[in-house]
Design brief:
Helix content is about 45%, strand content about 25%. It has about 190 residues and is an alpha/beta fold. The strands form two sheets. Strands 1-4-3-2-5-6 form a six-stranded mixed sheet. A two-stranded antiparallel ribbon has the order 7-8.
């Protein structure tokens, strides 16, 4: 597992947190990206990101790696909530099933830690981060870098996970504001 922690002088230890620490997960059987952001009074701040690499071999061993390494990430960074990308239907049904199993291992790590899990499509994540749902991977990486004031763009898997966490933070702000304004929100729709 590759682990990258914040080393900037504007780290969350110096800024007052408002109680939200979001773990974003980009599931994959070979590489599962993760990213942790903290919501502060000034906005979102980067805490950590990385990539869990599953060894080649039997599927149960690979799933165990995802589960145990994400459990370690959760134990280390103590997120209060988790956001994960929803699996899209691939051309190859076998690949879709395998990706779904990796996603299940990731969700299991969060559920075992008794954390709430929110799910977002790739379209929703790209819309929240880059402004349109058809953004290229490079655009998402650059917007993650800018939104979190990082010196360089993170790797593709970590960047996707951080984008998922940013999407969740923005969605919660939007829906929370609507609820405070007297509107009811159910299933992502305003009632």
């Amino acid at each position: 597992m590759t682990l990258t922690r914040a080393t900037t002088s504007t780290g969350s230890a110096r800024t007052r947190s408002i109680g939200r620490r979001i773990l974003g997960i980009d599931p994959g059987l070979r590489r599962t990206g993760y990213g942790v952001v903290v919501q502060t009074e000034r906005g979102l701040e980067y805490l950590a990101s990385g990539c869990i690499k599953s060894p080649e071999g039997e599927l149960p061993t690979r799933l165990k790696t995802i589960l145990s390494d994400l459990a370690e990430v959760i134990s280390t960074f103590k997120p209060t909530e988790v956001a994960i990308e929803i699996v899209f239907v691939n051309v190859n049904p076998q690949s879709t099933l395998l990706l779904g199993q990796a996603r299940g291992a990731a969700i299991s790590a969060a559920v075992l830690a008794e954390l709430p899990v929110a799910e977002y499509t790739a379209l929703q994540i790209k819309q929240a981060v880059a402004g349109h749902g058809k953004a290229a991977k490079e655009q998402v990486q650059e917007m993650v870098r800018r939104l979190l004031a990082l010196p360089a763009a993170p790797g593709a898997d970590a960047s996707d996970a951080l984008a998922c966490a940013i999407c969740h933070a923005h969605a919660a702000e939007s829906y929370g504001g609507l609820r405070r304004g007297g509107f009811r929100v159910r299933g992502g729709r305003i009632l």
